[in-house]
Description:
The protein has helices at residues 41-48, 127-130, 133-143, 172-181, 197-202, 204-212, 237-245, 257-265, 282-295, 309-321, 341-346, 351-367, 384-393, 405-422, 428-431, 437-440, 444-451, 453-458, 461-483, 502-508, 518-525; strands at residues 76-78, 104-106, 112-114, 118-123, 146-149, 161-163, 166-169, 190-195, 216-220, 231-234, 249-251, 271-274, 299-304, 326-330, 374-378, 398-402, 497-499. The chain is of the alpha/beta class and 529 residues long.
Amino acid sequence: MSLSRTNSTAATLTKNRTEDSIVPSSGMCVTCVDGCIGMCEIGKSAYRGHEVIYPQPFGVITTAGEKTYPVDYSHFNIMGTAVGAYGIEADSDKAIFPAVDLTVRVGHDGGLKFRRPWIIPGIGSTDVAKNNWEGLAIGSALAGTGLTIGENVVGMDMEAVIENGRVVDTADLKRRVKLYKDHQIDGYGAIIVQANVEDTRLGAQEYAIQELGVEVVELKWGQGAKNIGGEVKIKDLKKAQELHRRGYVVLPDPTDEAVIKAFERGTFREFERHSRVGMVEEESFAARVEELRAAGAKYVFLKTGAYRPADLARAIAWSSTYGIDMLTVDGAGGGTGMSPWHMMNEWGIPPVELHSLLYGYAKQLADAGRRVPDLVLAGGFVFEDQIFKGLAIGAPFVKMVGMARAPIAAAMVGKTIGKTIAESQLPVYVERFGRTRDEIFVTAADLRHLVGNDEFEKLPAGAIGLYTYYERLAQGLRQLMCGARKFATSYIARDDLACLTREAAEISGIQFTLDVDREEVKAILNGRH
């Protein structure tokens, strides 16, 4: 059985002619007919070439791989108990799920505080991120969660002022930071500015620290979606030329006269802007961390992707050595931007395997008496059960999980509902709940109390959508934790999980279901407990 769809997918807007008769190894139709117009990925590549590498329609979607991995988080179940309670008195009147504490503190001094154990670990210069930033920033800030401004935001800002190769003023980055900070409540949450090769050359993080008051910055080695730099599509010739001048890889070359003429004739309609891959070396990594601290950064994070185990070992070992406050590890298969489709499906270590390796490396460091940075797991987390499992598989080192596609989806839906309310075009599915924001969004009353009636009226619907989604996750997670009798995230442990398959147990080191509590069961049955 093939684990991948190799020649037809909604991601590239392709399909097979013979949907029910497909060669498993190649994805081709069993009978490929002369005269077919080319609906499959091979056929579409025959006339659109490299454009078909990327998910479509470009710029208005987020994308995740559809490969079926042998093991995923559904292969684990959460273990509950009928005995006792951790973090609260074992009293049925006190140990109720609303009493579960979801707050988390991270950083070398515990100075960063979050109301909920999840964070958006990096959305950058893509249109889908920029067009939904109001909802993401304001919703995250109100919820007291973290939000990372991803790579290339400064470089893609056509209003940015760059002098001698360094940024001195921006429009987009300034707006993104301000939207978050203006809605932050009681110091909960954090806005984080990430950097890749181009951002570092432009001095984007130094600018964010010194001019925008950003306290948290993140170095980026990669992500789970791809093993190359970020890419976007550019429809404007002058913008493509400006990005070329700023040092990006732009294809085809927008300064070539033949290319310019072809673009003007309509031979192609989009340029590709690519970022460079970083070259990780311990000496330069250590130097960059010190540069950021000298520039005024209070906390320095690192984000890495689904690279080979040796790279993961470097990430956690160097984070330990050089005092990185938080390390995010992103498993293969997801993405908020426009990663090459086959790359998204066919490279890297999947989440369960990668996160299991990370736990093993963290434990080895801890057992040797070395500091372990606060850890964040990313790679397909969407709902409260998965959040619990992520916290448990890496306990006690994992403090949060990272999510991006799901929060973007919530913000987009909230924005769309707000638009349909304004246009009096509510779909029947939504209209059954009401016709106003107060009737449709179940958290409206809470938000009115939190920010006041006047401010509530100004909130973008995307922010309300994200806040409401987060409220659902929080209540669901509290219920799961209450059932496990864990009343704070710090009490979640690996033995709160059981594996449903022997393979999952072998990979993760977590016990197979029938092996759970084996010794305690013997003691109970023998009357010794």
